Amino acid sequence: MKMGMELLYMPRFDVDAWFDVVEQRHPKATFVVPAMAELLIASPRFDDADLSSLRICSLGSAPVAPATVKKLQDKMPRAMVSNAWGMTEAGPAFCFMPEEERDKRVGSVGKPMPPTVFKVIDEAGNELAPRAIGELLISNPGREREYFNDPDATASTWRDGWLHSGDLAFLDEDGFLYIVGRAKEVIIRGGNNVHAADVEAALYEHPSVREVAVASIPHDVLGEDVAAWIVLVDGAEPTDKTIEDLKAFAAERLSDYKVPRRYTFVDELPRNATGKVVKNDLRARFAGYELPTA
Q: Which of 90, 82, 89, 93 is nearest to 29 (CA)?
């Protein structure tokens, strides 16, 4: 008797190959990173693809735009579509989103499963009220993990029984967790904090945008400014008019200080082996592809 579930492994992600596997092999569950989800939604195959076999669609490794989760959920109404959270350092820490809560809490990764405990703190170490953004801390019973042969890194990450994640997040009034981004990715523009994930989520709603990454660039007066690197959908033109359209679109959805002032169109975004965008590579790799902006 065959027990358990068969694992289908794709050595590299390819949009058409993914659709072929799901339609031909009928898996029950899939895991994709947000960048893969955006590529699937942008594919001309998405609307007509048969994804009815899927009961679980888990996203992870980075924050995901709420609009992306909704598009996937609308396409797979019988599946649980959720943005998962986890850390190697956190070991068994796990979040769960009850099915009856998923439509009410779009963008949340769920609540911690006992005995894991979360809290969110400010820079002074004070625990924050619900919906206030700060650093996520995790507590698990038992022996803490450690970095191999790196006691200094271990000591700075685990302090007083809490794992300092480096993730910016908030908890709602019922304890559901929302990941905003990484602390090191916050853009400080003229004294205002800009979370790249917020800007990316807004731009992902534009019909001409297939992929987007937002990061800081130097500014002589403000210290840092907000820049966006964009992969356009097929048929969209990388013109000054497109830039103006994107600026106006962002301005309708974001505070003025969050609206990107610099746009760069690229054929693809630099990614590591797990599909995450390598933002440190953006400025150097694509400096020559800028279009003039007023």
A: 82
Domains of the chain with CATH codes = 15-84 (3.40.50.980), 111-183 (2.30.38.10), 186-289 (3.30.300.30)
* 185 contacts 215 by C-beta, under 8 angstroms: yes
Quote the tokens at residue 110.
């769920």
Reduce the DSSP state of residue 137 to 3 states and report it: strand
233, 210 in Cβ contact below 8 A?
yes
271 phi, psi to nearest 5 deg:
-135, 155
Q: Which pLDDT does position 291 carry in this prediction? A: 41
Judge whether 215 and 283 are in contact, CB under 8 Å: yes
Contact in structure between 134 and 168 (CB atoms under 8 Å): yes
Q: Is the pTM of this model over 0.90?
A: no
Mean pLDDT check: name the lowest of 76-90, 166-180, 217-231, 275-289.
275-289
What is the mean predicted confidence (pLDDT) over 212-226? 90
| Residue found under tokens 């054929």 | 267
According to DSSP, the β-strands at 223-232 and 262-265 are parallel
What torsion, rounded to 10 degrees, do the Cα atoms 278, 198, 268, 225 define?
A: -70
Could you identify the residue written with the tokens 């797990």? 274
C-alpha separations of 233 from 47, 168, 191, 206, 237 in Å: 15, 30, 34, 10, 9
Query: Taking a C-beta distance cutoff of 8 angstroms, is the pair 233, 209 a contact?
Result: yes
Residue 72 neighbours by CB under 8 Å, 6+ apart: 37, 41, 57, 59, 81
Q: Are 18 and 40 in contact (CB under 8 A)?
A: yes
